[in-house]
Amino acid sequence: MYNKKSKNIILDEGGGGYKSNELILDIRKIVKDTGKWKNTGDDGAVFKLPKDSRNLVFTTDAFIIDPIFFPGGDIGKIAMCGTINDIAVMGAKPIGISLSIVMEEGFSRKDFEKILKSINKVSREAGVPVVTGDTKVTEKGKIDKIEITTAGVGISQKIINNNGIKPGDYIISSGDLGEHTVALLAKRFNYQTKIKTDSKPFNKEIEKVGKYLNACKDPTRGGLAANLVEMAEKSKMKVILDEKTLPYKKEVVAVTELLGLDIFSLASEGRFITAVSPKNVEGTLKILKTFNSPVDGEAKIIGRASRPKNKKEIGVFLETELGGSRKIEISRGKLIPRIC
Amino acid sequence: MDKIKVLKKINRLAKEMGRDVNLMEVCGTHTQAISRCGIRKILPKNINLITGPGCPVCVTAQKDIDAIINLALNGIPVATYGDLLRVPGYFGSLDDAREKGAKVFDVYSIEDALKLEEKYSGLVFFGLGFETTTPMTAWAIKKAYQSGRQGLTVYSTHKLFLPAMKALLSLGEVKIDGFIDPGHVSVIIGEKPYEELNAAQVITGFEEEDVLIGIFMLLKQIKNNEKKVENQYIRVVKKDGNKSARKIIDEVFEIGDGNWRGFGVVPGSGLEIKKKYKKFDAKRKYKNILDKIDFSRSKDPTGCKCGEVIRGIMNSRGCPMFKKVCTPDNPVGPCMVSVEGACNNYFRESK
User: Fold this and answer.
1) Residues A298 and A320 in one domain
2) Do A216 and A260 fall into the same domain?
3) Which of A70-74, A130-134, A322-326, B238-242 has the lowest mean pLDDT?
4) Residue range(s) defining the domain that contains residue A120
5) B83 with A323: Cβ contact below 8 A
6) Domain B3-53+170-231 belongs to what topology?
7) What class has domain B57-160+241-296?
8) Count of domains in chain A?
9) With contacts defined as CB-CB under 8 Å, which chain B residues touch A325?
10) Do A148 and A100 reside in the same domain of the chain?
11) Which pLDDT tens digit goes with each residue over A50-89?
12) Same domain, yes or no, for A40 and A149?
């Protein structure tokens, strides 16, 4: 009676927690064939070019958010950054993006143009053109305002996977985390906060440091918890985070306390977390620090990987000053407010 | 005070006292904080932390859960806080009802419910929680009243916290040496109401350091045989609490009998909507549906020990179903569902 999978799709399955992972596995039980494309469980698929040392990387992402405009960005910016970053994080240089937009009848043309302008801005900043696309308009109420789907192709000399953490590697965050979710929540609940979304394309950062990275992932949906845990589990490593160097700003901590949210589940849309061998740490940090200022929160070491003694030690652990230790867990799905 | 120093002081006091000391935390956010920081693991062996009835989802009576699920299955749109949707009732959970086509929404605050009501007329907000969430519900009802709109109605299971603490003490099933008093509830009610309990208590904040200092202050009281209400969380909790929040609760709600999982009906612990606002009372508006429900089947799930866990007489780990049949993925009772529940936290801690 208790061990059942529900007959219908439930919201949690879209939340980015482990329920989402189960859903993807279910899809792959039916849609099995990937042809000559390899999918290593990263955000994109890889195609080894014949008679060439390079690989194609291909990815896609769908975007629905509420609100569609928020401090520092909008759905268009997120849709571009998401796909560009998913390609970049695999060590590839994004070369073209497709853009599909579904809108409901009655959607404001002014808002539509605003979104297009911000798509164009990201495209120019990142140096990645939008090369094809599609549009549809539905009857009013069939969808909520606007949905955007982007897909992108990149070329890579050396693929970076999310399962390549080695014992002794330092875990680096390219900047402070969680500000995207906080900006959205602040807008939704009318909080006064200086926090803006952290969304931005980071392909140029990866271009510079890619050669140093053993593993890389962007902590979007599911935040540091879901993404670093996934990296640790796939790499079969133990990662220890230090309580004193967590990459979260005071305001971000304050908002999560106010709302009773798990800080490790907050999403970022312009940051990546990566594992780097000790000999390359200094070089990596030096380069990354030229991209994010101390005000944005510059790149820093947030933890270290080691070989686990047993299966139970695989994962991410937070060590507190008092010697308490807690395993970081992937959230179930959606965010739940504190009520006591 | 830095954390390491506080822990050392706790260790020293615990050693001096020698005997077992039972401290009870009575707020779901404390339960979470204690588990998250691994505080149970670093405390001396003779200091026991017992989880009390502080999780609003957990203490909601089965009957109320079955009532709201029935309303949803009768085609009435329902909104409430996320965790409650997953609590199993005799007729399934609200999540199950949504899958069957019922209009069920999880909201972050009652403000969201007000907005939803514009689209889904007749929406019922299932109001739960203690003095922490009640002012918001009262505010929404008042706002709806002033706007003249007959919109949202509320099914109130709001509860007063103190009567449950009194009930715990008078039942005497578990020896409690001191209470870690709830931080957020105290923001509203202040320090004074706790005095009548005549027990060692410290109103405590939610950071690791707060909890440790709270425990230290409690141990000091207990060692000196004192029964005071102390406030560790001064930076947030004012002596008189929040008068305007209490005023709006008084304006909209009246005290009735509260129905608690684990305790049953505790007189004077429930909050019902006053007559003046009866238009917004779902229990009145949908009386014809609610009266037809056969609550004789509305019992706690077979084998579930949530009642005992809530009263503090059983540790979650002592429940035969814990981790075997009952997990956060497939919860049997609410204490495993809610992120503020004892079983849910013990489960995560044990991983």
Assistant:
1) yes
2) yes
3) A322-326
4) 31-156
5) no
6) Rossmann fold (3.40.50)
7) alpha beta
8) 2
9) 38
10) yes
11) 999 999 999 999 999 888 998 889 999 999 999 999 999 9
12) yes
Q: Mapped to the 3 state alphabet, what secondary structure does chain B carry?
A: CCHHHHHHHHHHHHHHHCCCEEEEECCHHHHHHHHHCCHHHHCCCCEEEEECCCCHHHHECHHHHHHHHHHHHCCCCEEEEHHHHHCCECCECHHHHHHCCCCEEEECCHHHHHHHHHHCCCCEEEECCCCCCHHHHHHHHHHHHHHCCCCCEEEECCECCHHHHHHHHHHCCCCCCEEEECHHHHHHHCCHHHHHHCCEEEECCCCHHHHHHHHHHHHHHHHCCCCCEEECCCCCCCCCCCHHHHHHHHHHEEEEEEEECCCEEEEEEEEEECHHHHHHEHHHHCHHHHHHCCHHHCCCCCCCCHHHHHHCCCCHHHCCCECCCECCCCCCCHHHHCCCCHHHHHHHHHC
List the single residue in A with minimal CA-CA distance to B99. Answer: A8
Q: Are residues A75 and A209 in the same domain?
A: no
User: Does residue A240 belong to any structural domain of this protein?
Assistant: yes
Interfacial residues of A (vs B; Cβ cutoff 8 Å):
2-4, 6-8, 10-11, 188-189, 257, 259-260, 320-327, 329, 332, 334-340
| Closest in A321, A325, A338 to B29, CB measured | A338
Q: Do domains B3-53+170-231 and B57-160+241-296 have the same CATH topology?
A: yes
Question: pTM of the predicted model, to two decimals?
Answer: 0.77
Residue A182, domain CATH: 3.90.650.10
Taking CB atoms and an 8 Å limit, are A320 and B208 in contact across chains?
yes
Give the nearest chain B residue to A141 (CA atoms).
Answer: B119
Cβ within 8 Å, pair A2-B328: no
Residue A289 maps to a domain: yes
The answer on A238 and A139 residing in a single domain is no
For residue A332, list chain B residues with Cβ-Cβ distance below 8 A. 328
Whether A20 is covered by a domain: the verdict is no
Partner residue opposite B348 with nearest CB, options A6, A7, A329: A329
Q: What percent of chain A has pLDDT over 70?
A: 96
CA of B288, closest CA in chain A: separation in Å?
30
Q: What is the predicted pLDDT for the residue at B90?
A: 84
Distance from CA of B213 to the nearest CA of A (A): 14
Domain ranges (residues) in chain B: 3-53+170-231, 57-160+241-296
Q: Which residue of B has its CA nearest to A330?
A: B348
Minimal C-alpha gap between B338 and chain A (Å): 9
